[in-house]
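Tokens in:
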């Protein structure tokens, strides 16, 4: 009875095993009747036993073959899933990652382009939009958005299957499949583990893209705030000196000089932003005497450290030439000097030494300030890594200018014992 029920339920191998069992039972019954001399025949037990053993062997062999085929298929699927995951990880945009995953699912269940689509949430809302590969996002009814937002598990409505891709309580997207044929339904059932693997990879990639975008927006917001703060500070200083010049004409010359200084700082801030925004920084190095370079550095340090108690010096231990774009290099000096001014708080020492090593001209910028913590040292030249001071673009621009010269810049610091920047340019 159990074997017959298994046949009705379509269990693999049930029919052949039931046939073997039936032959064995019939052979045993035959032998019982033969022993009772109900009819003349011969013993059939051996034939029944052989049939039973053969059917069992056939079933085991078929199961082994199916398991081997499944193992090969799973290995192929694993390779495909790893390749797909690598491709998804190369996606920097949400929509491109979604369509990459959808293309793979289409290929697996043999669906047409229009039979699988996706809905994505609108930022900071419960509303969803329908996206397309080659068109704009399309708004959908609020009722459908609410249903999609609350969807926590796959849902079927006739031939429509909707599968949410979620992280905790956040819905990253919803895939909608219109499975209209039995072949598609069969493929979806057969390939369910692989499709789930695709969706898991998509979930991780979308979550990472969202996190990266969120962090980028936070950094942009913080940087914009710092930029506005810096501009506002210089504007207030200019306003104060303007009032001084109006109220006291005899102090006008000093006020104008201070205004020029603040304008220079604001221009430097603007140039930092522009240089960071440019994809390629262009420098035009020419052969300059070290004496000329040292003189320009001294002038810039005088400007930055005016009205402070910071002792600064420029030492020339190399009397030669260097290929340098002097105006660009002054941006390096201004940024490093302003960083030192912020760290020293108006009192301390800042020095620049010019040395020659093999084929390089080395500029050593050193202060005796509080230094930089170890966890920040490796990030100093990354954009927005300001440690809470300034826009965080200055040192990133310094790095780009030096690299554009064909040189290199390194930093060494010990908390409480100052900071050293070593700039190497081709001699």
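Residues out:
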């Amino acid at each position: 009875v159990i074997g017959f029920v298994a046949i009705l339920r379509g269990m693999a191998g049930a029919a052949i095993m039931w046939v073997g069992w039936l032959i064995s039972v019939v052979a045993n019954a035959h032998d019982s009747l033969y022993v009772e001399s109900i009819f003349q025949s011969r013993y059939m037990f051996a034939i029944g036993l052989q049939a039973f053993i053969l059917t069992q062997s056939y079933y085991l062999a078929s199961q082994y073959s199916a398991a081997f085929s499944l193992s090969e298929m799973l290995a192929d699927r694993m390779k495909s899933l790893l390749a797909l995951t690598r491709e998804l990880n190369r996606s920097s945009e949400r929509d491109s990652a979604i369509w990459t995953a959808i293309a793979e699912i289409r290929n697996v269940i043999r669906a047409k382009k229009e039979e699988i689509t996706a809905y994505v949430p609108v930022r900071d809302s419960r509303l969803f939009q329908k996206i397309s590969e080659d068109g704009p996002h399309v708004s959908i009814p609020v009722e459908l958005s609410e249903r999609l937002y609350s969807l926590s598990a796959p849902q079927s409505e006739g031939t429509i299957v909707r599968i949410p891709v979620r992280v905790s309580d956040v819905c990253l997207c919803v895939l909608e499949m219109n499975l209209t044929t039995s072949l598609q339904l069969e493929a979806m059932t057969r390939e369910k583990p692989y499709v789930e693997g695709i969706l898991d990879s998509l979930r991780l990639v979308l979550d990472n893209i969202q996190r990266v975008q969120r962090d980028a927006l936070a950094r942009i917001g913080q940087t914009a705030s710092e930029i506005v703060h810096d501009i506002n500070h210089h504007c207030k200083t200019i306003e104060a000196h303007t009032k001084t010049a109006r109220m006291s004409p005899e102090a006008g010359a000093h006020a104008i000089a201070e205004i020029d200084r603040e304008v220079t700082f604001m221009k430097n801030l603007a140039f930092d932003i522009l240089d960071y925004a440019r994809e390629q920084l262009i420098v035009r190095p020419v052969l300059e005497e070290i004496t000329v370079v040292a003189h320009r550095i001294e002038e810039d340090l005088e400007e930055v450290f005016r009205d402070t108690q910071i002792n600064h010096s420029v030492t020339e231990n190399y009397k030669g030439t260097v290929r340098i774009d002097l105006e660009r290099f002054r941006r390096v000096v201004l940024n490093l000097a302003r960083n030192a001014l912020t760290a020293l708080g108006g009192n301390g020492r800042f020095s620049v030494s010019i040395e020659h090593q093999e084929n390089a001209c080395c500029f050593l910028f050193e202060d005796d300030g509080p230094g930089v913590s170890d966890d920040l040292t490796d990030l100093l030249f990354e954009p927005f890594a300001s440690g809470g001071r300034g826009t965080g673009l200055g040192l990133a621009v310094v790095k780009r200018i030096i690299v554009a010269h064909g040189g290199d810049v390194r930093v060494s610091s010990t908390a409480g014992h100052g900071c050293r920047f070593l700039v190497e340019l081709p001699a």
